Structures are given as C-alpha cells and as structure tokens.
Amino acid sequence: MFGIKNNKIFLFVLEVTVNKTDIVKFLGLSASVPIADVRSPGEYKTGHIPGAVNIPLFDDKQREIVGITYKNEGRIKAILKGLELIGPAIDSRLEKALSHAVDNRLLVYCWRGGMRSETMGWLFSLGGIKTEILEGGYKSYRHHILNSYDRKKKIIVLGGMTGSGKTEILRYLYTGGHQVIDLEDLANHKGSAFGALGQDLQPSSEHFANRLFNEWDRITQDEPVWVEDESRNIGSVFMPDNFYSQLKTAPAIILMIDVENRIPKLLEEYAAFPHDHLRECVTKVSKRLGGENTKKVLTAIESSNMEEAVRIMLRYYDRTYMYSLSRKPSKTIIYVESDTVYDVKHNAELIIEASHKIKI
User: Residue 200 has what DSSP assignment?
Assistant: First the structure.
C-alpha cells in the first residue's frame, strides 16, 4: 500500500510481484492487449513499438535528474528522488493506464524491463490492471526485430524512372491479394528531393525499422513480396542494413516509360506546391544537378513554366537511375515497356506477367 503527504509518496510494501514475458509472447499478446511504453517522451519519440501509448514514469527532465542522482549518490538516493518527482502527478499515470487498458490488461515495457516498468506495473495493479512486463524491455524488442531482417524472403523489386507510377502499381497489386511492402509510406517520403512535399514528418531511422518489422513479420514464404526500388535512404530515413542487403540482390522488374508520358503525372503531383517549397527542394540537389541546370530549373519555377522545370529535373533523375541500374547484375533485371502511366491495371498486368520469368 502507499500514501501521499506533501506531494511525497510513502511505500508501506516495497516488494511487488510482477509478471514478465519474452518478446515473442509479448508481441503475440499485443494483438489483443494494449501496450504502454513507460519510458520518457524523448525516448518514445525516437522509437517505440508501433501502437504503444506513452505513459512515462518520468518526463525528460525528471529522467535526467534521476540519472544524475544515481551517478553521483547511488541507487537508493535515485529511487527517493524519483518518488519525490512523480508524487504530484502519479494519479495521472494511473488514470491514463485505466483509460487505455482493455479487459483490465496492459502490456508494459521500459528500456531494459527493470525498475521503471516494474514500478508502473505495481502502480497499474493498484487500479486493478493486470500487466505483463517485457523481459529485457525495448532493448530486447530492437534486438528481435533487427535479427528478423536476416531471414531470407522472396523479394521482387519494382523499379522504374521517376514518374512511372510505381506506387499506384504496388497498391493495385496489394488490393489484388499480392504481398506488398510500401517503403515510402512507412518513411513518409516519396524518395526524391521533392519527396517530403505534402507528407507528414518522417520517423527516425530507428522507428522506421520498427514500422517495417510489422510488415516484414507478416510476409509468408509461400509467395514473393513486392517492394519498390529505393536507395539506401528514403529522405532522411535509412533502412536496416540486413534488410537493404536483401533488396540490393533481389530480382528487379523495371518499368520503362518515355519521358513525355511521365511529365503530365509529375506536373499533377508537384506543380501546385508553393514556389518557395519547390526552390528549396531543387537547392538540395544543386551540386549534383550542376550550376547551369539549377539556374534553369529555378528560372522555370519562377516563371511558372513547370513543364520545363520537370523536364530538366527528369534528365538528372533518369541519368542517375540508369547509372544505378548499370551496377546491378544484368541477370537479375527484367525490363518492361509501356506507353502509359495512367493505365495502372495494364502496367500491373505487364509486371505480373514478367514476374513469371523469375525464379526465386
């Protein structure tokens, strides 16, 4: 039991029995039981188990204070300092847990599965919530998911130059029952220098890997999984090394569409954005684009000649992409030609037909 006096907590029973479970069982339970991440908001923002709600024992500043106290004065002093800090708001932690629990159950984790999760497990139990604490904490989760990318799966990469409608084809394949992982959706970015326009803020590379795991883990070995051709990074997000290694060596089907057929689609996607946003995107690749081309693109944007701006940018992107393809083993690539971007069904059927030639 406990009592509060002058915003300080006094514990009358310190030893608490907690239920701990391994990562595999924990993730299995998460299909029906909500997850509470009891680390600080800053830790949670950097990366967390997707779907987990943040119910922090300490805020970022409090965590820093407790850490300094532990380093300078030892464990007991740090515990006492922590109890002092959380006293005024301990009821809000329990209220939030009660609002998220389902059938009076919650899954709980901290960094290592130690004091923070055990303390919150005890607190939640006072409200009648039965908790399962992740043994090894978030650290064990990260170890589990990163190791999962070592598992070999049947991947087919869908490639094509900028503006070929690859994302729409992947969505069509998905609705048709094919296995698909949309990397750009997970990264909140369309891949090019203009890829952040109209998108939510990108996750950290750490949290991208967490989100990717949810998709990777559901993929079966019976059928291939379709993934769009991407570089090592999608905007500011970097893929896990072992996942990207599989992507680089996977067979690829490249959709070839003439530049004139791609320009209208890119105008639809990007021409409506404010000029200052477009100029900022051009500046990001100005060194690779070259001084003269950069100037031409910026001038075209300023005069609202968006077709000319797109045409110049496509010369750069097409050249860069074709160079990257030249570095792949030719035996892993199949080229498919189409004269349209807008007939997604037609292009998807071409891609599927080509995939029958692939032996994985």
Answer: P
Supply angle C-alpha 116, 121, 122, rounded to 5. Answer: 100
Q: Across-strand partners of 133?
A: 20, 108
Both 234 and 94 in a single domain? no
pLDDT in tens, 227-284: 999 999 999 999 999 999 999 999 999 999 999 999 999 999 999 999 999 999 999 9
Residue 11's CB: how many other CB atoms inside 10 A?
A: 13
3-state secondary structure of 293: helix
Q: What is the pTM of this model?
A: 0.90
Separation between Cα atoms, residue 200 and residue 263, nearest integer Å: 25
Distances (CA, A) of 217 to 76, 141, 238, 304: 41, 13, 19, 46
Q: What is the pLDDT of residues 68-122, one digit of tens each?
A: 998 899 888 888 888 888 877 889 999 999 999 999 999 999 999 998 999 999 9
Q: Is residue 360 part of a domain?
A: no
Q: Which of 109, 127, 145 is the last residue of a domain?
A: 145
Strand, coil or helix: 281: helix
The helix-helix angle for 259-270 and 306-326 (nearest 10°) equals 120
Which domain range does residue 325 map to?
153-355
CB 141 within 8 A of CB 109: yes
- For residue 226, what are the CA distances in angstroms to 178, 243, 253, 353? 8, 14, 10, 14
CA distance 160 to 318: 9
Query: Do 101 and 200 sit in the same domain of this protein?
Result: no
Q: Are residues 68 and 199 in the same domain?
A: no
Type of residue at 11: L
| Domain count within the chain | 2
